Amino acid sequence: MATTTEAPPTPTQPDPPGPPRPRRDDDTRTTPRWLYAVLSVGLLVTAVPFAWMLVSSFKPERELRAVPPTFWPEDVTLANYESLFTRLDFPTYFLNSALVAIAVTVGNLVFCSMLGYALAKLDFPGKRVVFGLVLGTLMVPGVVTFVPLFVLTTNIGLTNTLPGMILPFLAGPFGVFLMRQFILSLPDELIQAARVDGAGELRIFVSVILPLCGPALATLGVLTFLTSWNNFLWPLVVATSEDKYTLPVALALYSVGQNATQYGLLLAGAVVVVIPVIAVFLVLQRHIMQGIAMTGIK
Question: What domains appear along the chain, each with residue ranges and CATH number?
Answer without folding.
Answer: 81-295 (1.10.3720.10)
